Amino acid sequence: MHHDRGHRHRLPEASGSGGGDDRGSRARGDVVAVTDADQDFHEVLVDCSGSPRLRRAMRTLLLETRMLLGELQGAYPDLSEQVREHEVLCAAIGAGDAPAAYRLIDEHMHDAVTRLMARRDPGSVE
User: Fold this and answer.
1) How do residues 6-58 score in pLDDT, each as one tens digit?
2) What is the CA 110 to chain-centroid distance, rounded?
3) What are the tens digits of pLDDT across the range 72-90?
């Protein structure tokens, strides 16, 4: 997994593990602020890839990403759980553990889909 070392230092801050405002937002139950931090995390993660093509694709998908993150608002009864997923992923990336990072990304995406589907039809997905 290739990392842009110029942006890698931003991962802990973007994940919430840097102790920034995200932790306060979580504690206050400020879902909008946590969603904003969630989007920031995804943008920094893409920046860390060092791939101009991926960065362009991400800019194209930003609106859709924001809409999905908006849909996820309230899907996490405990906002800390959402931030923990990012912290664990950042730790794997920071350690250079590509297999773990890919697995965690896959789990994070599947978790989001499960939560979104449960919001659409609460009886269909647990």
Assistant:
1) 555 555 555 554 444 555 655 566 777 877 888 888 888 888 888 999 988 88
2) 12
3) 877 888 878 888 888 999 8
- What CATH code is carried by the domain that includes residue 32? 1.20.120
Residue 104, both tokens:
């965690």
Inter-axis angle of helices 52-72 and 98-120, to 10 degrees? 40
Whole-angstrom distance, CA of residue 4 vs CA of residue 67: 27
Tokens describing residue 121: 């039809």
CA dist 56 and 31 (Å) reads 28
Domain count, the chain: 1
Q: What is the pTM of this model?
A: 0.60
Q: CB–CB of 3/48 below 8 Å?
A: yes
Whether 126 is in a domain gets the answer no
